[in-house]
Amino acid sequence: MKNWKTVYKTDKLYQAQIVNDYLQEKELNPIIVDKKDSAYQLGYYEIVVTVDHVIRAIKLIEDDIKFE
User: Fold this and answer.
1) What is the pLDDT of residues 28-41, one digit of tens each?
2) Which of helix, strand or coil describes residue 7?
3) Do the bridges between strand 31-37 and strand 42-50 make them parallel or antiparallel, or are there none, so unpaired?
4) What are the structural domains, with CATH classification, of the chain?
5) At residue 3, what are phi and psi to the nearest 5 degrees?
6) HEC states along 14-54?
7) Which of 31, 38, 40, 63 has the most Cβ atoms closer than 10 angstroms to its Cβ?
8) pTM of the entire structure?
9) DSSP assignment letter at 4
């Protein structure tokens, strides 16, 4: 995963899926990386994209996705 960078982190799976689906619609080919400990439910989910798409992905997330 050397050529992949994290563009979003959350502890909520539904938020990771929403961000992943949105970036998929924009053809950025994101991947959800599960970094939660299954025994204790500690950790988070990361959305990663290739280094070529990092700036565009961050801009899209900041401009178009809001969670309260």
Assistant:
1) 999 999 999 888 88
2) strand
3) antiparallel
4) 4-64 (3.30.70)
5) -95, 15
6) HHHHHHHHHHHHCCCCCEEEEEEECCCCEEEEEEEEEHHHH
7) 31
8) 0.91
9) E
- pLDDT tens-digit profile of 15-68? 999 999 999 999 999 999 999 988 888 999 999 999 999 999 999 999 999 998
For residues 55 and 4, is the Cβ–Cβ distance under 8 A? no
Determine phi and psi for 59, rounding to 5 degrees: -65, -45
In single-letter form, the type of residue at position 62 comes to: E
Give CB contacts under 8 A, 24+ apart, made by 18-23.
18/65, 19/47, 19/61, 19/65, 20/47, 22/60, 22/61, 22/64, 22/65, 23/47, 23/49, 23/57, 23/60, 23/61
Other CB atoms within a 10 A radius of the CB of residue 46 amount to 19
